[in-house]
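Thread title: Can someone regenerate the structure for this chain?

I was given the following input by a collaborator and told the matching structure tokens would be attached. They weren't. Posting the sequence so someone can regenerate them.
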Amino acid sequence: MSSVKRPSSLSNLSRALFWTRTVMVWERVLPAVFPFVLFVMLVAVAAQWGLFLHLPQLAHLAVLSAGLVVAGVASVRAALRFRNPTFTEVNTRLAVDNGVKPERLLAMRHEISQPQLRIGKAKAGIAAADPFALRFVALVAAMLGFLIFGPVPVSQVVGGFLPFDAARTFVDTTLASN
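Best answer:
Regenerated them for you:
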């Protein structure tokens, strides 16, 4: 009885296919997560600029609620478009990233000695989740806020997420008495 040597399940090809699949899944999950990241960035920038300091508590709650609903809808829409990458897609992506034909990777599955394979970098998938490029608006506004206002207290930024905070209520009553 002859024993046929087979490549290990931890071979270079198997590891490269696993990590390529992982990168592709991350690219497809990111558009569903990004609306919440953008929402947090925009609220933090608005709080940095002090826009919530003069807003009544119920209006502040309404702004946060509306932002969460919009982020939730965008996230659900992106999640509904999610699908797992097929073996053919993963194999083709790995072949393109390594400059070989997909058939060569299929043949490597039966080889004992396999060359080292590169795993490609994640492709930018945020553009599909942020068609109006609001991430750049939030980033530029945060930088301008830092340049104009200087460093603001962290409690002011955190207050943007807490419409019924006791410290904020104190600020509202102080502003109202003046």
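The chain has eight helices and no strands.
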